[in-house]
Write a structure and sequence with these properties.
The chain has 132 residues and is mainly α. It has a single domain, classed as de novo design (two linked rop proteins), CATH 1.20.1440. It is built from four helices and no strands. Helix 1 runs antiparallel to helix 2. The longest helix has 30 residues. The two termini are 25 Å apart. The C terminus is likely disordered.
């Protein structure tokens, strides 16, 4: 695994762990439990799906998996926005996690675009095979 891939793998795992810690701090109201549960699933999904991306066997599989990780990061950003904008969590941690979710979205989207363009050009995938 190259250093950039490993760094992003570590970063997405840290994001998942930070989300889990953050959700534990939310008050135990019904709506915060509901939103927190959604955030917990999507935040953990970023790391889990990026890890699966690293195990892709082909470029089409890589593209599909990285897009799932991107969807999870975007969903995490949505739930964090809900928490901040409704005042359910007005602290700095929620805003920092939202910033990280948005940064991860940008990184994952760029990676997806690069891989999709390479596939459309017919460039060999990571293992030297051509895919249509």
């Amino acid at each position: 695994m190259n250093p950039e891939t490993e760094a992003l793998r570590d970063r997405t795992k840290k994001f998942a762990l930070d989300i889990l810690r953050f959700v534990r701090t939310l008050p135990a109201t019904d709506e915060q439990r509901d939103v927190g549960g959604q955030l917990r699933r999507s935040g953990a999904g970023v790391g889990a799906n990026y890890r699966a991306t690293c195990r892709s066997r082909s470029r089409p599989e890589f593209i599909a998996r990285i897009n799932v990780a991107l969807e999870e990061a975007d969903e995490s950003a949505f739930w964090l926005e809900v928490l901040v904008e409704t005042g359910m969590s007005a602290g700095r941690t929620a805003r920092e996690l939202l910033d990280e979710a948005n940064q991860l979205c940008a990184i994952l989207a760029a990676s997806s675009i690069t891989a999709t363009e390479a596939q459309q050009r017919g460039d060999p995938d990571l293992r030297g095979r051509r895919h249509s």
